[in-house]
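[recover] target loaded
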């Protein structure tokens, strides 16, 4: 599988995760999101950027949904944030689907789609 972005072919595995994290940019994210049927909101970009930051700057960490909820309760200063709030932005799973759009490797955690 691959994505065509700005005349460039971005290689991806059979599940749609890009093979090289360095190939990622916002245009690539938009192409993956379109393939996933997701429109990226401002908070969606927050989630994507958080996942990229955790992976690139925290030893390859790929937070699960529970940790994402905890982070965004503080980041968005909203104690009502829950997993459902994150699923509104990424209906197939905020950790896995957003991770795919963020250009991080496919997680080996159980669950998801």
């Amino acid at each position: 599988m691959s994505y065509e972005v700005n005349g460039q072919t971005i290689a991806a595995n059979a599940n749609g995760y890009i093979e090289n994290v360095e190939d990622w940019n916002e245009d690539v994210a938009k192409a993956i999101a379109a393939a996933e049927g997701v429109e990226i909101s401002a908070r969606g970009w927050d989630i994507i950027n958080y996942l990229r930051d955790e992976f690139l700057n925290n030893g390859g960490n790929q937070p699960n949904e529970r940790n994402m909820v905890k982070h965004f309760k503080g980041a968005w200063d909203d104690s009502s944030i829950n997993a459902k709030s994150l699923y509104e932005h990424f209906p197939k799973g905020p950790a896995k689907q957003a991770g795919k759009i963020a250009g991080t490797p496919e997680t080996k955690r159980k669950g998801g789609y």
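[recover] notes: The chain has one domain: 2-101.
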